[in-house]
Amino acid sequence: AWTTTPWTLTSNVAAAVGVLLLHEDRVLFAVRSADPGRGLLDLPGGFVEPGESLEQGLQREVREELGIALPALRYLGSCANEYLFDGVLYHTSDAFFTARLTERPALAPADDIAHAHWLRPDQIAPADIAFRSVRESIAMLQR
User: Cα angle vertex 96, ends 95, 101, to 5°?
Assistant: First the structure.
């Protein structure tokens, strides 16, 4: 005899990535052009797509958002985050990397980036940053 087991719906965590692009004492911050966090600061990056590693997803996102290729990446750490989009709260695990640049590249902000600014992390008020995980990644960098 066949038995059926009821399906259990689980809410899995989505993988997201961000990069702290470093040049001298500055980090490249993006101004978000869309919600969540429209008008607030974020780091270049986004969601990892099926079939991508964290690094591949980050390279793709940065090409889409800024029109540049990233140099060698160094893993910084990860943070839990919440991403409220279209009325749905997504739980994410955000992995952060650093990449050091010897010169500032020409940027072509696109996708969900309105502007990009090179800022010293100590110039930024925490309330101006869109996501808790980004605030935490900056604290990791400063340790």
Answer: 150
